Amino acid sequence: MASGYSSIRQFMPPVSSNSRRGCTRQYSGPRKIAARTNRREAMAGNILEVRNLTKSFGGLKAVNDLTFDVKEGELLGIAGPNGSGKSTLFNVMTKIPFGPTGGEVVFGNQRIDRMPPHRIAALGLARTFQKDAEFPDLSARETVALAAVYGRKLSRAGAMAATEEQLHAVQFDPARADMPTTELSVFDRKQLMIASALVMQPRVLMLDEPASGLTRPEITALDALLCKIAASGVTIMLIEHVLSLLLSVAQRLIVLNQGSLLAEGDPQTVIKNPAVVEAYLGGRAA
Q1: pTM for the predicted model, two decimal places
Q2: HEC string of 19-81?
Q3: Of 124, 126, 142, which Cα lies nearest the Cα of 179?
Q4: Among candidates 200, 144, 136, which has minimal Cα distance to 168?
């Protein structure tokens, strides 16, 4: 068992020299990330409930009878081998680009698995994708403003004010804000995706592998940003293959394999679970 866990650990670049088990709420910086959830205190129960969620493609169940809860205000990590159903889970929860085959998703006190995507987003569920959408004719600033205009129906002036607030919140370099998105670095684009989601004032932010393609210093910066967002009161669901980042920021971890829930609980305990070690190293993932 120890050797298996050590084998996983060797693929986990250090995020920082500080030992931390999940983002804490002792953040003293600006809290203007999402006004809808500003200054929310401790978790007040479940904000999301997933019940027997299933997505089938012919005979393949990409999400297989999945049940779990997301607590309000927590940073929930989601791990699993390639092909385990993580991104498909986000797809069916947001109905972008498709909904579930069966099961239920309850957000707050409303069942959302029967709603169209725009209504789900309007309730406060925002997500990012593994691959960022490029708008070659738009600058970084205009890209975020577009989300503000169409997502929140703001006036031009209101959208620009909200855009500046969120670009500042994610520490986007002001000197690059008017550059075309095609000229931005990978880290710039990650910041831009997060800012575009935050400008929607989400209650739940769903991030799909934001650390992909980043350098170690950039992952460290992302670590700090995620904790800043969590401290503002936004609930975060984080899919990530960089396990060191998950272990640093997640307060709770669930692991998927072949579309099913394999393990959940304290991240440091879950990652040592023999079934989790086998899923990562035993080649059993779909």
Answers
A1: 0.86
A2: CCCCCCCCCCCCCCCCHHHCCCCCCCCEEEEEEEEEEEECCEEEEEEEEEEEECCCEEEEECC
A3: 142
A4: 144
Q: Give CA–CA dist 83/80, Å, rounded.
A: 8
- Does some domain include residue 187? no
pLDDT band at 134 (very low <50, low <70, confident <90, very high): low
Q: Decide if 135 is inside a domain.
A: no
Q: What is the DSSP letter of 138?
A: S
Token pair, residue 270, equals: 């879950």
Closest CA to 251 of 232, 270, 279: 270
H or E segment to which residue 266 belongs = none
Q: Which amino acid is at 2?
A: A
Sequence-distant (≥ 6) Cβ neighbours of residue 72 within 8 angstroms: 40, 43, 44, 45, 46, 47, 235
| CB within 8 Å of 271: residues ≥ 6 apart | 5, 8, 79, 243, 247, 253
10: domain range?
2-124+201-281
Q: Is the pLDDT of residue 33 over 80?
A: no
In whole angstroms, what is the distance from residue 285 CA to residue 279 CA?
6
Sort strands 75-79 and 60-71 into parallel, antiparallel or unpaired.
unpaired
Q: Which band of pLDDT confidence, cut at 50, 70 and 90, is reported for residue 17? A: very low
In angstroms, the CA 38 to CA 227 distance is 14
Specify the CATH number for the domain of residue 36: 3.40.50.300
Q: Fill in the amino acid letter for 245.
A: L
pLDDT at 15 over 80: no
Pairing outcome for strands 260-265 and 252-257 = antiparallel
